Amino acid sequence: MRHYYILTINPGSTSTKIAFYQNIEPLFTETIRHKMDELAQFPRIIEQLPFRRDKIMNFLKDKDIPLTRLSAVVGRGGLLRPLPSGTYRVNEKMLKDLREGSYGEHASNLGALLAAEIASEAGVLAYVVDPPCVDELDPLARVSGCPEIERRSLFHALNVKAVARRVCRELGERLENINLLVAHMGGGISVCALKRGKVIDVNNALAEGPFSPERAGGLPTLELARLCFSGRYTWAEVYKKLVGQGGLVAYLGTQDATEVEKRIEQGDEKARLIYEAMAYQVAKELGSMAAVLKGEVRAIVFTGGLAYSSRLTSWIKERVEFIAPVLIYPGEDEMKALAEGALRVLMGEEKALEY
Ligand SMILES: Nc1ncnc2c1ncn2[C@@H]1O[C@H](COP(=O)(O)OP(=O)(O)OP(=O)(O)O)[C@@H](O)[C@H]1O
Ligand SMILES: CCCC(=O)O
C-alpha cells in the first residue's frame, strides 16, 4: 500500500492540536494549550493566524519533518455555509468566507487558513473534513418559535461523527441501523441526537443548550434582551460574554475544569455548585434529545476533554442512564478523523467536495 504523509491541524478555542500521520498511523502528535492571556492579545480570532502558524512550523522543525515530505495538509473546517458531511478541498471562496467571518468567528476558522498556508508552501492540497456547519437537521428542528430566527446546526461534527463510527465498530452495529445520543464536552458543548447516523437535532453549541467552560449556552430570552438594550454593552461585548467568556469562565474565572476540580477538593462551594450545574444542564439536554429520538436510543456517548472527569461524567450519568447505557470516550478522535478524511480522497476512495 502506498504511503501518504498527512499533517493535521485542529485549532480549538483553548488549544492547537497538531499531528503528523503516515496514512492513519500517527507518527507525531502534540497538543499546545494556549493560556487565556496569551490569546487575549488578539482582538479577533483571525489575528491569531501567525501566532498559531509559528507554533506549527516549530513543531515541524522540532520533529525534523521537511515540508517536502507532506502529501496533504488537513485542517478542522470552520463556520461556513450549511454543508453536507464530507471532505472538502480548501478553495479561495472558502478562505474568503473564513477571513471575513461571513458565518461567524470561531477558532476552527483558522484550520483551513493554516492548512492552506502550509500546503501552498509544501506544494500540496489542503482539505477540511466535517466542519462544524454540517447540517442534517430535521425540518421540525429548524423551527425556533420566532419566524425571524431559524435554528442552525453548529456543533462538533468532526468528533461526533468519528466517535459515533467508533462506537458502532465496537458495538458491532451499523451506524445506519441505530440511534445514538452523543455529548461532546470540550471548551464548547454539543449534545446530538443521531438518527441512523444523521444528526437530526443538536443544540447550536455557540448559542443554545448547556453552558460550557467558555459558552453561556441557552439563556432566559427576556433577561438577555434586557441586557442587550441596557446600553451597557456593545454587540462585541455581548458576543464575548456569551461565546468566549461565558459559562465556567464567567462564574469562576477559569475555563480549566481541572482547576475547578482542585477548588472543589479544597471545599470551594461555589465551584461545586457551578460545575454540578453544568453537568445538570448536559443531562437535561440529553433528556430532550432522547425525546427527539422517541426514546429509541442504543447508547449515550460522552466525549471531549471534559469526559476525562469522572466527577462530571458520574453526575451526568446518574440522571440519564435510565435512557440507555452510557459509554465514555474521553478526549477526541478528531486528528485521526481528519487524517482518514484526507486519506479517503488521496487514495481515490472518495471525491473531495467543492465548496
Ligand atoms: N483530565 C481532565 N479532567 C477534567 N477536565 C479536563 C481534563 N482534560 C481536559 N479537561 C477539560 O476539558 C476542557 C477542554 O476540552 P477540549 O480540549 O476538548 O476543548 P477544546 O478542543 O479546546 O475545545 P472544543 O472541544 O470546544 O473544540 C477544558 O475545560 C479542560 O480543562
Ligand atoms: C464546534 C462549534 C461549537 C463550539 O465551539 O462550541
UniProtKB/TrEMBL annotation:
The gene is buk. It comes from Thermanaeromonas toyohensis ToBE. Keywords: ATP-binding, Cytoplasm, Kinase, Nucleotide-binding, Transferase. Gene3D superfamilies: 3.30.420.40. Belongs to the acetokinase family. This is Probable butyrate kinase. PANTHER family: ACETATE KINASE (PTHR21060), BUTYRATE KINASE 2-RELATED (PTHR21060:SF3). Its main location: cytoplasm. GO terms for biological process: acetate metabolic process. Its EC number is 2.7.2.7. The keyword ATP-binding applies. SUPFAM superfamilies: Actin-like ATPase domain. GO terms for cellular component: cytoplasm. It is found in: Cytoplasm. CDD domains: ASKHA_NBD_BK. Pfam families: Acetate_kinase. The keyword Phosphoprotein does not apply. Coiled coil: none annotated. One of its GO terms (molecular function) is acetate kinase activity. PROSITE patterns: ACETATE_KINASE_1 (PS01075), ACETATE_KINASE_2 (PS01076). It catalyses: butanoate + ATP = butanoyl phosphate + ADP. InterPro entries: Aliphatic_acid_kin_short-chain, Aliphatic_acid_kinase_CS, ATPase_NBD, Butyrate_kin.
